[in-house]
Amino acid sequence: MSLVPIRNLLSDHKGIRKNQNFIHLSVLISVWHNLVGAQISSNTKVVSFKNGVVKVAVTSSAWATELSAIKHDLILQINNTTGNSKASLRDIVFYVVNNTTESDDIGKTMAQNKPVIKKIPLDDDEKFNLEKSVSCIHNEHLRDLAIKVTALDLEIKKGASTKD
Q: From the centroid of its chain, how far is CA 132?
């Protein structure tokens, strides 16, 4: 076994943590609208995820107050939906966007959201191909997160492509 400088291990760990934060943010953004519904979604925007804390911009202090009152329920719902048994989401911070232009942008962005799309589960072949495509990721946790994010994305795309 060869010796590796600690600074190399720490820099590798920081890179993994940064990727995990990005993956968690991606998952959260993709499920937010379905979890909170159209009315809340039209007044909020998921902005960042770091170290278990998600920051959500809201259009008014009333929304920040109301959402803060139910944030523990939202955290449980998000962790259950994303399958994070380790409860990777620990807190949600709601903040009011002071700049009216930025607030209008949130409203416009969320107003453009399409109706909730039905997710269609992946079949066995699709699951096999997905797992094969991420097999090159050596970190088990990152590989599992990549599978979750990609599977969710594919399920949503399958649902969007079907005509009811």
A: 23
Mean pLDDT of the region 96-104: 61
Residue 56's beta-bridge partner residues? 46, 94
Separation between Cα atoms, residue 90 and residue 87, nearest integer Å: 7
CA separation, residue 71 to residues 32, 68, 106 (Å): 13, 5, 20
Give one DSSP letter per residue of the chain, joined into a string. -----HHHHHHHHHHHHHHHHHHHHHHHHHHHHHHH-HHHHTTEEEEEEETTEEEEEESSHHHHHHHHHTHHHHHHHHHHHHT-TT----EEEEEE--SHHHHHHHHHHHHTPPPPPPP----HHHHHHHHHHTTT---HHHHHHHHHHHHHHHHHHHHHH---
Q: Identify whether the C-beta of residue 81 lies closer than 8 Å to the C-beta of residue 31.
A: yes
* Structure confidence at residue 11 (pLDDT): 45
Confidence of residue 128 (pLDDT cuts 50, 70, 90): very high
Give the torsion sign (CA, 127, 129, 133, 135): positive
Q: What pLDDT is stored for residue 68 in this prediction?
A: 92
Lowest mean pLDDT among 17-31, 72-86, 133-147: 17-31
Whether the full predicted model's pTM is greater than 0.90, yes or no, is no
